[in-house]
Design goal:
single chain; about 180 residues; alpha+beta; globular
Amino acid sequence: MANKIGRIVLGIVIVCAIIVGVYFVLPGSVKNPLTAWIQNETDSNYAPIVDALKGATIPKNKGVTFDSKVSIMDGNAWTIKKIDVDDAGNGTYDVYADGYKVTVSMENETNDTGMVTFTNAHVRLTFHITKKGSEITIGDKEVVAGKAATPAELSVNETTYHSTDKDTYYQAALNCIANYNK
């Protein structure tokens, strides 16, 4: 009898290990939506944080929300990472908005050869937010639907643009996202 129970437990452990192993080797276009679904089902802070950012607009692109553009990208997902959070869910988070198979094309600032173009690119917007009760802020500005929210980083494939960059590639990349249509 103990031998059968031992085999059943071992079988369950092996199946769980296989599921976890497969999850870690999945491409981001599959893993990120799966992670977002799990976070939405298990974390009560997920929806208020993500919904606030989805309703915010892309800087210098009046009326264009992050959700309206991220939602039309392939494999789109909003995921959160807790940085320093208390038991009530207050603290700092990183929020990631991912999309795949996006074409980003902008003028080349370093020379006059034309455009910098990324095709079938993975785009990731990274927001560093703070949550205090129902208030969600980026820096000292509250995130409000219909108002601009500035991502700290915008990554296109392996190239990362920061909101503090002196060049205009950061805003140009945001403008490409705001003008993106499938």
